[in-house]
Design brief:
It is a single chain. By secondary structure, the chain is mostly helical. It has one domain. The chain is built from five helices and two strands. Strands 1-2 form a two-stranded antiparallel sheet. The N and C termini lie far apart (41 Å).
């Protein structure tokens, strides 16, 4: 199904903005030479390349992103909705930012995953 038929313009615009931000953060983390991301690589050189790969080559990932964006935007309590914001996550947290190792989860799930990993 075409994305513009499934989601309204506001969801798509905000979803694209959030996805580009998440792509930018993934690229930044992959360039870190210290801490938890020291040895994490990314198969993309720029956030735009990663964004376009998700947008045009991975329809399921992109549609999942838009679904979580809609849930995030529809949440009535703005202060509580941060936990619903979509984020890019590495399926294998020991792996790299490669397209086949990416999934979309909420910020709350990602934070919980990080807490579980560090415990």
């Amino acid at each position: 199904m075409k994305i513009y038929k499934k989601f309204d313009k506001k969801v798509i615009e905000e979803g694209n903005r959030l996805l580009m931000t998440s792509c930018r953060k993934a690229i930044e983390r992959s360039r870190s030479d210290e801490g938890a991301y020291k040895h994490v690589k990314c198969s993309f050189n720029t956030a735009k390349q990663l964004f376009l790969s998700i947008r045009w080559n991975n329809k399921k990932l992109y549609e999942n992103w838009m679904t979580l964006t809609k849930n995030y935007l529809d949440h009535p309590n703005q202060t509580d909705r941060l936990r619903l914001r979509p984020t890019l996550d590495r399926i294998d947290s020991q792996g790299h930012y490669f397209i086949n190792n990416l999934q979309v989860i909420t910020f709350g799930q990602n934070a919980s995953k990080a807490r579980t990993k560090s415990a």
